[in-house]
Amino acid sequence: MTPLAMSALAMLVERPMHPYEMYRLMIDRYEHEVVKVKPGTLYHAMARMADAELIEAVGTDREGGRPERTTYRITPKGVRLMQERVRGLLAQPVNEYPSFPVALGEAHNLPRAEVLELLTMRIAALQARVDERRPSLDAAAAEGVEEAYLLDHHFVVDMTAAELEWLRELVARIENKELEWPSRP
Q1: Per DSSP, what are the bridge partners of residue 60?
Q2: What is the pLDDT of residues 40-55, one digit of tens each?
Q3: Are 119 and 181 in contact (CB under 8 A)?
Q4: Which residues pair with residue 55 across a beta bridge?
Q5: CB 165 within 8 A of CB 127
Q6: Fold of the domain built from segment(s) 3-91
Q7: pLDDT band at 110, cuts 50/70/90?
Q8: What PANTHER family does the record point to (predicted)?
Q9: Minimal CA–CA distance to 69: which of 34, 27, 21?
Q10: Which of 80, 74, 77 is nearest to 12 (CA)?
Q11: How far is CA 24 from CA 156, 182, 185, in A?
């Protein structure tokens, strides 16, 4: 089950919805920050889940000249599968093969000064993300959103902050030459 399918099933636990409504709600809740979501991809995921009997159509409506929208609800089978997937992901670490560690492992192939410049750019971009997300979390809390619904966002912010700390230490070690840099011809 893809992260998008799992998120969609979880939204349908709340109430029946049509895919576009789910997409808008994911954007409003900043879910697109933790799950790659595009309307077309969501519609395809919904069709696959319907074929697998994880969700079922409960109605179709049309507003004005817009296309018909099918509203779905989660089935008991969908609830079970989604919960099993959540249990597995919570209990067992999974190597997701992020590309940044690969870049770090090959950074020695670039000149020291360029690596410092690139890492400084990354630090600035990550700091901007943290600065952008923290107010959203504060606003959600002020609106009464329970923290349990925001755990994914807190995780992303805290992991980004940890990466920032590690990167700043790495940059300092490279700058003060505590970490030796290979010379390249």
Answers
A1: 70
A2: 899 999 999 999 999 9
A3: no
A4: 74
A5: no
A6: Arc Repressor Mutant, subunit A (1.10.10)
A7: very high
A8: PADR-FAMILY TRANSCRIPTIONAL REGULATOR, TRANSCRIPTIONAL REGULATOR RV3488
A9: 21
A10: 74
A11: 21, 49, 53
Q: Would you say 11 and 54 are in contact if contact means Cβ atoms under 8 Å apart? A: no
Q: Per residue in 12-32, pLDDT tens? A: 999 999 999 999 988 888 888
Q: Which helix (H) or strand (E) holds 126?
A: helix 112-142
Instruction: Using the structure block, give the residue that is written with the tokens 């805290």.
Output: 158
- Which residues touch 168 (CB under 8 Å, ≥6 apart)? 123
Q: Which of 111, 153, 101, 102 has the alpha carbon at shortest distance from 129?
A: 153
Alpha-carbon distances, residue 94 vs 24, 26, 84, 154, 159 (angstroms): 29, 24, 15, 19, 16
Alpha-carbon gap, residue 179 to 169, rounded angstroms: 11
The amino acid at 97: Y
Q: How far apart are CA 16 and CA 31, in angstroms?
A: 18
Burial class (CB in 10 A: 0-12, 13-18, 19+), 1: buried
| Rounded Cα distance, 7 and 14, in Å | 11
What is the C-alpha to C-alpha distance for residues 152 and 86, in angstroms, rounded to an integer? 12
The residues spanned by each domain of the chain are 3-91, 100-175
Q: Are 45 and 29 in contact (CB under 8 A)?
A: no
Six token digits for residue 48 = 């696959």
CA atoms within 13 A on the CB side of 40: 0
